[in-house]
Design a protein that fits this description.
By secondary structure, the chain is an alpha+beta fold. The protein starts with 8 loop residues before the first strand and ends with a helix.
Amino acid sequence: MYNSNMIRFRARFSLPQQKDILFFEQKAKISLPDDYKAFLLKQNGGIAENFYPKSMFAQEVQNVSSLFGLHVTSLYYGDLKQNYAKDTDKSSDLTYQYYSLQLLYEHPESIILIASSLISYVLMSLDPEHYGRIYCGHPHEGEEQFYNEERAESTSVDEELAYVGFDAFANSFTEFMNSSVSKAEYEASFS
């Protein structure tokens, strides 16, 4: 598990129970990594006040401002793809973000959007090839905006995601969370 003392979160949703995560996985037909499920049970996302993860593969540092959580009320409110309680903060709801990624950018069910900042998104692979791997980027940074499943059949997950603007960042959610650096190091990465 990640070092929770280094990163401060302001919660947006109440904590889910194990059964809520299982319900989400069953409805979405996915299986989340254990370290990510532990995070949802302990923190359930929120506004990150000082989270600057550094890539395990390059010198890139991100400023991640929001990690998504399960809004339990909306989770049980009818069809996960369409019906949400009117008071749901959709921008922070993991369920909403999961389906938005599929509908807006045509990503497959094996990719889940777990966090964002003002300029980038954080994806997690649920594909067996790189299960749990974290990617950062934005569709406007790639050669194309839309994931192409036909092309993806002849490339790796890493290659296809790079093609649509996302680079591998960490091998697991725990590695991603533990990679946080100071604000000064984040700011120095721009020079």
